[in-house]
Give the backbone structure.
Amino acid sequence: MKADRPHRLRDVHGPRRDLIHCVGQVGTLQRLVGDGWRAIDLPIENDLWGVFVTPDGVVRACGNDGTCIRVVNEEMIELEAPKSRFFCVHQFQGEVYWGDSEFGIYREQGNQLVEFHPAGTGWDMRSDTEYLYLVGGGIAWRFDGKKWNSLQLDYDGTDLRLIQ
């Protein structure tokens, strides 16, 4: 597939084929159309690292210098966020969570992000019907909507060992 913009792509998401989007360098946001990508022009130049698309077509993307955006019908809303690097965004049980390089997890409230869970670094998030999963900084987290649990592995030079 040919990209509509020549920039490096970093993440892709979509709940179904007609809503698949990808993000990347220099504010690149593209949507899969047919057998190729169509760029969505955004008034930003920061690199984007993560994207999440809801079943109703709302696109959220995040990146460098606190770039956290919501795109509805190709109109961008910039969310108020700390100036850290945001790597991931995910929706779970009706709430939207954002992972960054410094604090950990933020929750979207209106047009701003508020601190939610001090995980250190939020690299990537996924979910199933029961849990939101987060990885970052050598720790894996699991959230059931009320409580966070963690699992940490450490390499001692010969083997991995579990740290509770």
Notes: The two ends are 44 Å apart (CA to CA).
